[in-house]
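== Item description ==
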Amino acid sequence: MIQYLNLPPIPTRLLDEFEERSGLCPNMEDNFVKTSEHCQGITDWCRENVCPDLFYGVQIMQGMVPKHTDRSHSNLVPECKLVYLVDPGGANVKTRFWDGDMPLREFIIEPLRWHLIQVNVVHSVEGIENNRKRWGVTTQMLHKELI
């Protein structure tokens, strides 16, 4: 459900630049936002150093993110996403996978490492500390017509 990958870390200067420019979306009305604003430097670096065929954006969470499966821009359910978690939002924040009302597994994801996460399984994020935000760089496959 979570698999760490040996990919290069995103340079701190790019992460700091995003955090400064975005302010980590200080007026979030929901507990989750995904944005491609303020992250062109991150996108350019990732396309050059990780994979050129992915769409990169930043996701920011606060509070508890309830059970869900991820959706793509085309409203399809992707199987997995590549994520670089920058700030977990606290030391004990858990990503929990579910089968109905029964928890299957839970993970405390390590920051500043790339990982694949299976997002077509119901999951939640629990334990983000008050006045903290969990954020990281996430990906989505670009859909190209194959000839």
Remarks:
- The mean pLDDT is 89.
- The two ends are 32 Å apart (CA to CA).
